[in-house]
Amino acid sequence: MTSSPTERAPATTTGAGEYLHGLDLLRVIASCAVVLTHLSAWFALNHEEFWLAELVERGLVDPLHLNPRLSFLGVALFLLVSGVVVTHVADRERPLQFLRKRVVRLLPLLWVVTALAWALINLGLRVSAEREGPLDLGDLLSGLALANFFQSPQVALAGVTWTLQIQVAFYCYVALTIPVLRRRPWVPPLGLALLSFVLLLLNNGVQTAMAQQIGKLGVYLPVVCIGQLISLAHSRKVGPVAATAIGAVHFTLFTWADKVGGYTFQGEAMPRTLLVATLLVVLLVAAGGPVSRSAVVRGWSKRTYAIYLVHLSAMYPLYDALMPHLDHTLVAVLGLAWAVLLAEALHRWVEVPADRAVRRWEKRRSAR
Questions:
Q1: Average model confidence (pLDDT) across the chain
Q2: Which segments of the chain does DSSP mark as H helices, in order?
Q3: In terms of pTM, does the model score above 0.90?
Q4: CA–CA separation, 321 vs 125, rounded Å?
Q5: How far is CA 310 from CA 1, 29, 161, 207, 355, in A?
């Protein structure tokens, strides 16, 4: 979840120069939900109980009838936030410039974490729900290009990167429709609903890895597009009634795809989870209180892409090694701390230098 966590909050809204602090807070909530989901999943996979997982089930999952372990909530938030941010920045960038910036900023951290996961798997360690066998150089290259999910059998590597495929597809669609988005902003979201419907219709029942991944685009692109509609409504480029109506079409598509089956795998409450995530984004996108404005939230938000990509590779090998021997709470905290340290290192020494290099390159190009 790049937003996914790959995008920064927009610096302005409708022209008042107001920073959307609420997006920082939403990223923090999303990162907590994703990490908590995978922390709880480790105990479920190993048929063990953990007090925090039980607390989440009793306090949130059961009352709200969400997916077990809050599955999909964090990912849904990241995808929605990505739709909000990408739509904002598209308003001031040329199509090719927009696409180049998005993809180039996504790649460096993806490449480093994918290589790390590949190395850990070849050392016999688990970095996802299932243990992978030894991987070759071709598997690494496919993971670096996000092509590993099109393989049969699939090679997960950094398993959470499946959401980056959704984001890249959305980037491409936005880049193609930027001219229309500026003149008739309601048209691209409506067009994406039709495209998603066609993708689902053509790939329904086709049992190939390629069809499965293309079908997933039809399922999850509507989630990002709901974020786009929230952005357009917030900036008053699309009226709230029209935005709600088109958003309802995308929500219906997502619900239909979930009922058809074959694409969603996180639980039986996918539509309800998406609804809760959407309401959270609508309520918090313009939040400006002391919590959303705090330095902690701002700094945490900048590191959510690194946290999102590396937390499984940090937590699962450590849990597999230490859980049988030490107190569960202690090991859980150690795993979280190790994930935070790795994410901080990746942010400081990979993400920030890469972002600065891209900015310098863009300045040189614009100066020519």
A1: 92
A2: 21-45, 51-56, 62-64, 73-90, 95-122, 137-144, 162-183, 187-203, 209-234, 240-260, 270-284, 290-293, 295-302, 304-322, 328-346, 352-367
A3: yes
A4: 9
A5: 12, 17, 10, 31, 18
